[in-house]
Amino acid sequence: MAAREHNDVEILEDGEGPGAIVSFPFDAAAVERFRDAFPRARWNDDLAAWRIPGTTAMLRAARWLDRELPSAFSLADQRGRDSFSFEPIVSPYLEVADELVVRTPYSRTVVEELRAVPWAWWNGEDKAWHVPFRSIDELRRRWPAIEAAAEYSEPEARKQRREAAKSAPEYEDAKAAMTERRRRRYPVPASEQPPLDRVLMSHEGPLVILEVTGEVVPAETAARHYPWSSGQPDDLVWALWRRPMHDELVKTWPARHPAAVSALLRGWWQPTLEELRIARRAARSLERARETRHRRGGSDDPAG
Known about the structure:
Layout: E1 8-14, E2 17-23, H1 28-37, E3 42-44, E4 49-53, H2 57-68, H3 70-86, E5 94-96, E6 100-102, H4 108-115, E7 121-123, E8 128-131, H5 136-152, H6 155-166, H7 171-182, E9 185-189, E10 199-202, E11 205-216, H8 219-225, E12 236-242, H9 246-251, H10 261-266, E13 268-269, H11 273-295
């Protein structure tokens, strides 16, 4: 049986859902005990490791390995403590307890860096990452990026960036564009109105048109937020829209050829297969994120 060079537990979230990847030095008895403890675990030849499904898989696997390999971990942790004593990480974001405790403002970079540290795990109760001393070398290697990202994400630093952005010339344009987008309206030619309740492609991405209101689009609004419409000779009216769901995108029949110039000028067209593929990936990712937040009941676990 192949095995990774080091003991390792990683969070995994792929097409099969959340889970953990586990590897440990091969031992027939240990493998038997592992399979008894995790009957749903499956061996992955590509990763040369075991995959355990479930949102709590990483924590359960880490606890199992802690229990099964106490002597090896104890020695590694002691070496890590000695290394930390000789060369400590001095930072307001790091506390020393039974393990190293990392507590920072939320940052995607911090999450990605700590996920890459072996045995690091998120403690939702005290809202902090815990890193055993055995992982000190990898934590030390990644600490400059972690600390820089944490400082960048401090509320005061974010406030300063927002204030600086407000003084930039493009701030008002960006604010106006965001306000317009939240209205969920889209200009269409009065003489070539799109079909309702069908997935269409537009200059704003995939849309499902809910209603054409008939209200005329002001020329200034069209020129400022929809510059593609400048070549449209017909009057423009507002159409209300929503984003299509993943299932709708899967069922949508693709166009055989890219949109003609006339379709681009009118602002809507039948999507091509490549456009649908991109939209499906985006919709699937968004829906998974919503499902994860719902499953966790609004938890602020940054590992998700």
